[in-house]
Amino acid sequence: MCGIVGYIGDRDVSSVLIVGLERLSYRGYDSSGISVISEGELSFWKKSGKIHELSKIIDGLNIKGSLGIGHTRWATHGIPNDINSHPHLDKSKKISIVHNGIIENFLDIKEGLIKEGYVFRSQTDTEVIVHLVDKHYKSNLVQALAAACKHLKGSYGIAMISELDPDKIIVARSGSPLIIGKGQSENFVSSDINTILPHTKDVIYLEDNQFGVITKDDITIYNNELTKIDAVLQHINWDPVQSEKGGHDHFMHKEIHEQPAVVRRIISKYVDSNGSITFKSVKDVPLEDVSRFIIQSCGTSWHAGLIGRYLLENYAKTPSEVDYSSEFRYRRMISKGKDMVLAISQSGETADTLAGIREAKSNFFPIISFVNVKNSSIDRESDAVIYSHSGQEVGVASTKNYISQLTTLYLFSLYLGVIKKELTPEQAKSYIDELNKIPDYIESILAQEETIKTLADKYYLSNQFLFIGRGINFPSALEGALKLKEISYVHATGYAAGELKHGPIALIDSKLPIVCIAPNTSTYDKMLSNIQEVKSRKGKTIIVATEGNKEIADYADDIIYIPKTIEDLSPLLVSIPLQLLSYYIAIKRDCDVDQPRNLAKSVTVE
Ligand code: F6R
Known about the structure:
Helices cover 34% and strands 22% of the residues. Strands 3-2-4-1-10-9-11-15 form an eight-stranded antiparallel beta sheet. Strands 5-6-7-8-12-13-14 form a seven-stranded antiparallel beta sheet, with helices on one face. Strands 17-16-18-19-20 form a five-stranded parallel beta sheet, with helices on both faces. The protein is of the alpha/beta class.
């Protein structure tokens, strides 16, 4: 999704901006642009397509700048073309703006501005901001930006430069992240910490309704009344994330293969040498009193939440419900005083999940979040955070972070079970012993990669797939279908197998591949009946089953075996062949696996 970079200092400005844009590119984008001030004069270049298209038009121009801003755009308002790309400029082309987020009332503002004689060049919502700044400008740019922001409804992270005050980058934030990096006689701006960390580890996270004025040597932060406030300079003590493919063809492939190490890492972080679970970050949260969990998240994180519900109910005997953040945030929030909201997010920036947290907070729910990206907005706004420790996930389709969400939720549920005295410490230890075996089991599934690749070769021309599962592996079916559709653009639907006869069974014919998730769990017999229903209608079954299960092979066109584990850990194993199947089908269909069309790694708009 959209990304912002900015730089002021003595380095080659356009190069710093382009490298910054490259570092943002994993988030997903469809155009890019930069704007630079050189000897007081503003210039800009923008182009649809990949960043190298932009580089092509600026290579050889010998741009000498003292400051600049850049942007990767993920189209929301207006198609991805050169004109709709950022930056956007005012009528005299003296003010340049890049923006992340969505201005919800832009049509009303645009109508008013057109009546006043403003001419719009693009179809974007962003362009209203720059015209509003122009309209409100008297002699001070930050005042003009603050006046413009008073009209905006929606979310924004904004960076602005102008010939009218050519030694400053001005930034604003409301609901969309904006970070300032402090260097030595140079400063940086970005919407993503990973772009700043290679240059400096001293950063200021702009809060909502704050403005920043950045010169080469100074950073001044203002509140929405434009009163100067003391900025909190934080020192980040972790390194910029590694984003090399390490010999793999794609980040997704690398990340699938990192999963055994991710599970081992999480165990080492949260299980001490005595085999007891310690979540230091939640030790002061009165978990024993919680009578209901409400889990809210999106996409793959929502699937992890669905599995989390089974775990919390099973080990901690605590009723739990799960909602999409985009639905939860608009629901009536009724708290009986002992409810707790759990938010799950890889990026920690998903707009709906963040909004869900804010709504829940204003309704007095305590919030624990499961987050991968440290210092993200959700990390900073939650009452307590449990980190997923999966390392940076670059592939847009979530794989290793899903596994880490399942692992942390499993440990959290056991921890809670012990606190609530629903489990003895010894019982919890025996469940941890099972978890300890999972990394080796995942490795054994990864060793079957060639077999799964052969299945992809066999099925990749099918234009639709059905995934079915039951109980704790119903969410696994949803996740398998999501992975396939997002990276290979094949229509895939996940269904609870017990629901087949209530509708989707009508889809089944001799051409439809049906991925049947049938490990040895408490619902296995029921699942076997569902598979028989599928087979008797000539559906093509690809069955994921537990090693040693020969009986089920009679109903399989193809079969993938996974090692035997306990029911509550089976989703961790089931997801591995499904990830590989999607990956190889996408490759065969010649799709951009790491950056699927229309998708973004961090969904910072509603
Ligand atoms: C799918 C995928 C998305 C994300 C969703 C939530 O592979 O990655 O569905 O899971 O956009 O993102 P986070 O977890 O960052 O809140």
